Structures are given as C-alpha cells and as structure tokens.
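Sequence, please.
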C-alpha cells in the first residue's frame, strides 16, 4: 500500500508541471530514449509499446518543447499555412485546415495558420517565415502563373506545396482542381437544359486558375454552340457588388439564361441578384456553381453543383510538404482532382 501511495504521489508531482519525456518515462517504466523513439514512430519499437507511450502522452497532455526540438535538430516541426481570409463564409478555409490536420496528426508536425488578406502584399507572410525560420515547410494558395512566392521559396530551398499550379518552368509540389474541366462541363450542362446565352463569374485574371477556367469556358461555348454574356465582376469582388452587378445584368435586354459561378460563396450573391431582378432560378435562368460544402442545395436546390473536395486538397498538400522535407522529388508530388457533379445535374 505504501509503495502504491508513493507511486501515486510521485506521479501527481510529476504531472503537476509541464509533462516532459522524463514524465512519460516515469509513468510507463521505460527509458527516455525509448519513449522519444516511440513518439517518433521508430520502426524498432513495438506496436504495443508505442500505443502505451502515446496513451500516457495523451492523458498527460504532453506536447513537444519546440524550442528544445529546434535547438537539438534545427527543426521547428511547424508547417505554415498562408491562408486568405477574405469572404470566408462557406467553409473553404476550414475544410482545408481539417484536411491538413488529418495528415499531421500522428507526425511530429503542427500546423500554424498565417491569415492573410489578398488585398495586401502576398510576399509579406512568406518573407516573414523565411526570415524568422519559423517553419520547416509552407503551404500557399491563390497561385499566380509566375508567382514570386514560388520563386522565393525555391531560391531558399524551403519545402512547400501550392494549392494551384504555376507556369514558371519551376517544378514544385502542388494540388489543384481541374477548373478547365469544370467550366467546360458547366457549359455542357447548361446547353443541355436549352441555355444558349451564358455568363460566367470567374476568378480574377491574375490567378492561374483564371486561365484554366477561361479555356474550359470558351472551349465549351465553341463546342456546344453558345455565346457569352459579359459579367464585369469577379469572385474577389465584395458580395454586395456581385449581387448588384448580377441584378443589373439580369435586368438588361441581353440578359443571360445561364450562369457559371466559380465559387460557392459568390453563388449566394448571384442568386440574390437574380431574385432582385425579378427572375426565377430554374425557370428564367439556370446556374452552375462549384462548392466545397453541400450548402447550396439547401439554399436553392435548383443550382447545379460541382463538388471541389478542399479537405482532400489539404491532405494532399500536407503529404506533399512532408515528403518534400524528406527529400522526395517535386515531380512526384503533383496532383489534380476532378469535379464531382451532383446527382440532379447528371
């Protein structure tokens, strides 16, 4: 009884302060080196031992001392996600974070989100990460054809992955959505419903996926015998501006009978503009939109949707960054996902 009391008292004393590898070693009866290797998933440590160590670590709320790790290894065990926060109302960013976190769980790495507005200098957060050495790898989005962030990261030999492709001739890890296929198939679906005058709410022209979207859209118009009705705003405009522009377009004599929307959040504003003009979705006009969460069908079941799995994109980019840190060639870390259409659109 006395020994048990002493053990309980020692355990209580050991867990009163921030738990360390020594704390876990004491609680499990293992050596500090064994505990450290078990947490790193070393192949020479048995599965039962690893599970016992992880269970005690979870119960104690153990977190690696990043300062100590950095002093010993020169690594931060941080993956920095530089993420745009503008008009975040449809879960796009959160789904990406979830996907990245799923992959990092069980690894030494942690995600640190660096919020950034696309209206500010996009180089600032990347320069900060490089200058401070605050991450072992970086994930960036809103990629441009000749993206200066990509060039800077390559020059500094910093492992990274991008959500989107460049056209620089520099090989780097990326995951992208096939926006060319989306836009082409969107036109096909609208023409299949008898629509011939089609507008598109597209990305800003500085981004790479604008070019992919335009190619798919224009090819679709040509292939299926439709014409474009110009819309002078993009998905980067404030939602109120999109709504007003769509209302004006729908009130004009040459109003479209079909609309393609490149973002789920913007589709809400497009729908509001259609209704403000006194038109009815599914009767006067049909709309096709991308979405990263199944929300549009709850708001307006008439909207034809293509699912972009942003959570999957997060997983792919996290795996690519870790693989790049481990020395895998960037050409092997590139992937593109296809649109998944809702049942009602087939």
């Amino acid at each position: 009884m006395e020994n048990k009391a002493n053990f309980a008292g020692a355990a209580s004393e050991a867990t009163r302060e921030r738990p360390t590898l020594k704390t876990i070693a004491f609680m499990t009866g293992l050596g500090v080196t064994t505990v450290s290797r078990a947490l790193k998933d070393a192949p020479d440590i048995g599965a039962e031992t690893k599970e016992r160590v992880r269970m005690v670590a979870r119960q104690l709320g153990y977190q690696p001392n990043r300062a100590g790790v950095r002093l010993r290894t020169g690594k931060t065990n941080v993956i920095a996600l530089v993420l745009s926060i503008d008009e975040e109302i449809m879960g796009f960013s959160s789904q990406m974070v979830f996907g990245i976190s799923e992959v990092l769980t069980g690894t030494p790495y942690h995600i640190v989100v660096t919020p950034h507005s696309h209206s500010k200098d996009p180089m600032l957060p990347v320069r900060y990460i490089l200058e401070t050495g605050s991450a072992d790898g970086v994930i960036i989005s809103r990629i441009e054809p000749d993206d200066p962030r990509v060039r800077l990261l390559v020059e500094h030999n910093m492992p990274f992955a991008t959500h989107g492709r460049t056209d620089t001739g520099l090989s780097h890890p990326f995951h992208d959505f096939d926006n060319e296929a989306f836009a082409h198939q969107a036109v096909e679906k609208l023409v299949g419903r008898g629509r011939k005058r089609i507008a598109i709410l597209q990305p800003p022209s500085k981004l790479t996926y604008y070019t992919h979207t335009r190619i798919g859209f224009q090819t679709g118009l040509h292939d299926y015998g439709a014409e474009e009705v110009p819309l002078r705003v993009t998905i980067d405009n404030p939602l109120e501006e999109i709504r007003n522009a769509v209302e004006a377009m729908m009130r004009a004599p040459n109003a479209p009978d079909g609309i393609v929307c490149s973002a789920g959040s913007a589709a809400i504003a497009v729908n509001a503009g259609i209704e403000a003009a006194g038109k009815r979705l599914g009767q006067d006009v049909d709309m096709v939109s991308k979405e990263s969460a199944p929300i549009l069908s709850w708001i307006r079941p008439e909207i034809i949707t293509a699912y972009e799995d942003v959570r999957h994109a997060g997983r792919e980019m996290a795996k690519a960054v870790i693989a790049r840190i481990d020395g895998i060639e960037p050409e092997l870390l590139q992937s593109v996902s296809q649109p998944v259409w809702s049942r009602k659109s087939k």
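Residues 9 and 310 are 48 Å apart (CA to CA).
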